[in-house]
Amino acid sequence: MRLAKAAFCLAVCAVISATSPVFAAKKKAKASAMPEWVNVPATVYPNDAYITYVGNAPDRDSAEIKALQGLASVFGQAVKSSSEASERMIRAKADGKVASASESVFSQDILRTVDVDSLIGVEAREFWFDGQSTWYAIAVLDKEKAAGIYSDMIHKNASAMQAIVSRSRSDKNSFDSYAAYDFAEDIALENENHLKKMSVIKPAAVSALKSACPSSKEFHAKKMEIAKNIPICVIMQNDEGGRLSAAFSEAVSSLGFRGSYDGNVRYVLTSSVNFERSDASDGKTTRCRYNVEGYLLDTATQQQIVPFTMSGREGHVDYPEAKNRAVRSLEAKIKKDFAKQFSTYLKNLIVE
Q: Is residue 111 classed as helix, strand or coil in its secondary structure?
């Protein structure tokens, strides 16, 4: 009887202890033995087959991000920079026309801080809590698996480049042809980034892959050759002295095209400028307001492209100087803002 009572008491004590916060805290504090990969990852993941990085932080998610950032840094791209990819490239990747990494495997917290292209074939394989304050995570890249993925992407992109430029040859000296080679150049740069990663993952395979890929420099040279053969006629109304027309010519020339005053060419940049005087209420300052509107016309299709407007005002004690300042301000805007808008249009021109 005494034995039965003792057993019953022990059982009750066990239940109470298991549900007690104090007991739970002690249980949580007790950590499993430190795994070998925490200090010497190669003992578990041999260097000839894996690339690894161990991260640690007060919480599990932060430890995982640090591990993935650290492994990405092996490729020189640990932290994701603000994306400069064109809308055209983003769409092409989404449509599968350009090979890219899948983002579905990673959380948004990870994708905000780590370049997804540096995480191909990577996973956070194991975690360990030291029972006190620190979580450890190991990011692991399987070299053979990653090499296969990168190789497939490089070959797919090489085929895409060739298809893009071959379709553009029917309309050689056009913005469409220029955009095709510009797009091919962007894809070639993607492949060159993949090749840099392959040089870390599987150096022996790089030479054969590189020989199958046109270089971005080749496409850039061809793109600039096309631009050189595309004159753009500049026609501007109310441009006294031709300073603003010259600024537009300089803007298109900065992208490799030829500014022209021949109205018989395919592309014509048409615009007009208006100046308006206004006097300040104190009678000491005179302002010159300006407004420019225009567009590029493709005379082959009669399509108006790159519409633009520019406005502002400048002041001085006398109107002629206020107007002169307005013209100088416009010259600067044309060379910078219009050139940027034109470049963005070309960068995002749809290439079929």
A: helix
Tell me how far apart the alpha carbons of residues 273 and 290 are, in angstroms, rounded to a whole number: 7
Instruction: For residue 291, give both structure tokens.
Output: 């407004």
Q: What is the pLDDT of residue 121?
A: 85
Q: How open is the CA angle 102-186-97, to the nearest 5 degrees?
A: 45
- Contact yes or no for 346/305 (Cβ under 8 A): no
Confidence of residue 131 (pLDDT cuts 50, 70, 90): very high
Enter the tokens of residue 158: 């090489």
CB 34 within 8 A of CB 56: no
As a whole number of Å, the CA-based R_g of the chain is: 32
pLDDT single digits (tens) 78-124: 334 434 678 888 888 888 888 876 655 677 777 777 777 778 888 99
Which amino acid is present at 204?
A
Provide, for the chain, the percentages of residues in helix, strand and coil under a 3-state DSSP scheme, each rounded to the nearest 5: 55, 20, 25
How deeply is 60 buried, as exposed, middle or buried, from its count of CB atoms within 10 A (0-12, 13-18, 19+)? middle
206-239 as b/e, with b when 16 or more CB fall inside 10 Å? beebeeebbebeebbebbbebbeebbbbbbbeeb
Task: Give the pLDDT confidence score for residue 109 in this predicted structure.
Answer: 77
Query: Do residues 346 and 86 make contact, with C-beta atoms less than 8 angstroms apart?
Result: no
